[in-house]
Amino acid sequence: MEGLELRTPYFLVDERLLQKNLELLRQVADEAGCKILLAQKAFSMFACYPQIRRYLDGTTASGLHEARLGREEFGGETHVFSPAYREDEFEELLSLADHFVFNSPGQVRKFGLRAKEAGKSTGLRVNPECSTQEGHQIYDPCAPGSRLGTTLAQFDPELLPLLDGLHFHTLCEQDSDALEVTAAAFEEKFSPWLKGLKWLNLGGGHHITRPGYDVERLVRVIRRLRESYGAEIYLEPGEAVVLNAGFLVTSVLETLHNGVEIAILDASAACHMPDVLEMPYRPPLAGAVGPGEKPFTYRLAGPTCLAGDVIGDYSFDRPLAEGSRLVFEDMALYTMVKTNTFNGMRLPDIVLRKMDGQVEVVKSFGYETFKERLS
Q1: I need a labelling partner for 159 at 20 to 30 A (CA). Which of 57, 242, 254, 255 fits?
Q2: Does residue 133 have a pLDDT over 70?
């Protein structure tokens, strides 16, 4: 890992690894005849936008600030979806976004005409009530009682004159077989109203750039939908854009023993990789494997006062010691966008490794970042 003289912790995104993902996504878009957008909720490191926009068609936003970032820093198409729009932000959003997706018939009635009169493309997010996930209900928009998307029972065909398209997003880190199942459920429920729409948006959660992903099936599903209904097809992946293109470099501050060997790091699960606790999951770590598989096993933990600030148990070839550097992998997605300053933790610097191998610190954080959020 280059740049080890940098102060830890820091995030590092590698343009060469990012490029591999972007080339595959462009290939999918060309073969399937669809448009692919960057979901900024997963990755908003706009220092990378000049590279990404050469391959993708635009961005998606979850609200005003992401929409502004996409418009100002990325360009192309700017799409926005919110479960409920704020009245005091909607006029500004109209100046930023091209596509508005509404979550419910009530939101269409409240804002749809204003968006259409402003020349925007409008759509409705639907819930095909088809869960294909296991074990991640927090990320399942089709879970019982979901607030996301309009079910068939709630759908109002009288709103169709205000709609250019329909949107569904039901996947999370899944292959194209799950999309195929979901698309079939979507058509079964909503096919009477699909012909004549300008576009269909198949959402995100497509793990397109993961090794072994069935790209051919994805292309078939998209082509069939496009040819069946004459609609433009959109995908809006986040993870797939930066999958395996980022790292979090951290140092060991202290080791101790309490029934197990423990290493306190300068990176925190709670502050710097909260999905480790929220998902939960065990992030990959370069040179390490599961507990007990190598001679030296440690519980890696963060420096905050939260008792549960634990990243996980890993084993190593050699003992860890103060100053040991560890490199967590696949740390571009849902990391920088979720960091926080609990306990006054310093946020990790953001570092970019350029195509030529040069390393550049694009953002550093300090006390003022913590202080200015609070008063």
Answers
A1: 57
A2: yes
- Over the stretch 46-83, which tens digit does the pLDDT of each residue have? 999 999 999 999 999 999 999 999 999 999 999 999 99
Any idea which fold 33-242 has? TIM Barrel (3.20.20)
* Ramachandran area for residue 170 (φ above 0: left; ψ -120 to 50: alpha; else beta): alpha
68, 70, 75, 81 alpha-carbon torsion, rounded to 10°: -90
Pairing type for strands 261-265 and 246-257 reads antiparallel
- Alpha carbon distance 296, 284 (integer Å): 17
Task: Count how many residues are written for the chain.
Answer: 375
Query: pTM of the prediction?
Result: 0.95
CATH class of 246-331+339-371: mainly beta
For residues 190 and 54, give the distance between their C-alpha atoms in angstroms, rounded to a whole number.
34
Give phi and psi for 263, each to the nearest 5. -120, 120
Share of the chain above pLDDT 90, in %: 96
Q: Would you kindly state where each structural domain of the chain is located, as residue ranges?
A: 33-242, 246-331+339-371
State the chain's maximal CA–CA distance in angstroms.
67
Binding region for substrate: 239, 275
Rounded to whole angstroms, how far apart are CA atoms 72 and 78?
Answer: 10
Which residues participate in the annotated binding site?
Answer: 239, 275
Is the CB of residue 132 less than 8 Å from the CB of residue 174?
Answer: yes
What pLDDT, in 10s, does the model give residues 172-193?
A: 999 999 999 999 999 999 999 9
Residue range 104-121: mean pLDDT, rounded:
98
Residue 167 in contact with residue 203, Cβ under 8 Å? yes
What is the rounded distance in angstroms from the CA atom of residue 265 to the CA atom of residue 123?
46
Strands 77-81 and 99-102: parallel
Distance CA 102, CA 122 (A): 8
Q: What is the mean predicted confidence (pLDDT) over 206-228? A: 98
Question: 34: which 2 tokens?
Answer: 């669809």
